Amino acid sequence: MRRKFFNALGAAMALVMLLALSSAMAAEKTWTNGNGDGKWGTGANWNPAGAPGAGDIAVFNDNANITVSTSVADIAIRVLNDVEVALKSEGSGKLTLKGSDEPIKEEDIKGKASLLVAEGATLTTEADCLALPNAHAAIVLDGNLELGSNLEVPSGKVLHIKTENYRGALTGNVAGLVFTDSTSTIAFYGDVTLDGAKKIIDTVGGGAIEMAESWSILTATHKDTFVVNGPVIFKNSEGTCWSTLKLEAQLP
Fold first, then answer.
1. Between β-strands 244-247 and 122-125, what pairing exists: parallel, antiparallel or unpaired?
2. 172/119: higher pLDDT
3. How far, in Å, CA of 192 to CA of 188, rounded?
4. pLDDT band at 236, cuts 50/70/90?
5. pLDDT higher than threshold 70 for residue 240
6. Pure H helices in 59-214
7. What are the percentages of helix, strand and coil residues in the chain, rounded to 5?
8. What is the pLDDT of residues 209-223, one digit of tens each?
9. How far is residue 248's CA from residue 52's CA, in Å, rounded to a whole number?
10. pLDDT of residue 206
11. Are 200 and 209 in contact (CB under 8 A)?
12. What single-letter DSSP state applies at residue 238?
């Protein structure tokens, strides 16, 4: 009996060590397009070699047009200053951003951000190549995020969007952030511009927009920036009235 107990204990400890090792092996991969085919899944297009997988960080320090033909979950993306990156889906290709099972504190947003678009940079997504996880998630947006398809904020979860330099913009044509239900929350930190129609989409009759920093400004440029099917709650986590919703377009 004791031998079986110690064998089971040893197996459990080995599993814990294996999980810790796999977590520690998460890598930062920089896009080079070394193979020249422009495909995310081609290992030779990354340095170090090998396409980014679950838990990895994909870094872009030069302009790129990339085809995503495989599905990868738990991924982080960094688009550095003044770089333009376009992601398009091929087949069932999709990148699901990394999330957090636990609520994300404001001071941890940058460290836990699964998407960073730096100052002067633009990330453009086409079709359904980018998705939010079924978890809390964070985006640092000092550049321009142009969505080609909607990102759905899960039930009971918070999507944190932080601008460190007060100049982030969510743009595009007819795609934006969608409340899955009335318990979904989008929290803005700093000044953010919602440029165009259908940037905040409420199809279920509820949801919450949180102005999580005092003195921040949320700017809507289009009469259809907010598409509401029910009451969307605007709130300020500090209980102050210093945050501003600025409407630049005339309402119908």
1. unpaired
2. 119
3. 7
4. confident
5. no
6. 109-112
7. 15, 40, 50
8. 998 887 788 899 988
9. 40
10. 83
11. yes
12. T
Is the pLDDT reported for residue 76 higher than 80?
A: yes
Beta bridge partners of 47: 30
Task: Quickly state the pLDDT bin for 51 (edges 50, 70, 90).
Answer: very high
Output the pTM of the full model. Answer: 0.86
What residues does each domain of the chain span?
A: 27-247
The residues with which 159 forms a beta bridge, in sequence order, are 137, 186
- Is residue 170 within 8 Å of residue 141, measured between CB atoms? yes
Residue type, 125: T
Tokens of 67: 């085809």
**Residue in 94, 98, 140, 142 with CA at minimum distance from that of residue 122:** 142
The size of the chain, in residues, is 252
Q: Which two tokens stand for residue 34?
A: 């070394």
Q: What is the torsion angle, in degrees rounded to the nearest 10, for the CA atoms of residue 227, residue 232, residue 238 and residue 244?
A: 40
What residues contact residue 252 under an 8 Å CB cut-off, 6+ apart? 223
For residue 8, what is the enclosing H or E element? Answer: helix 2-24
Nearest to 192 by CA among 169, 175, 212: 169
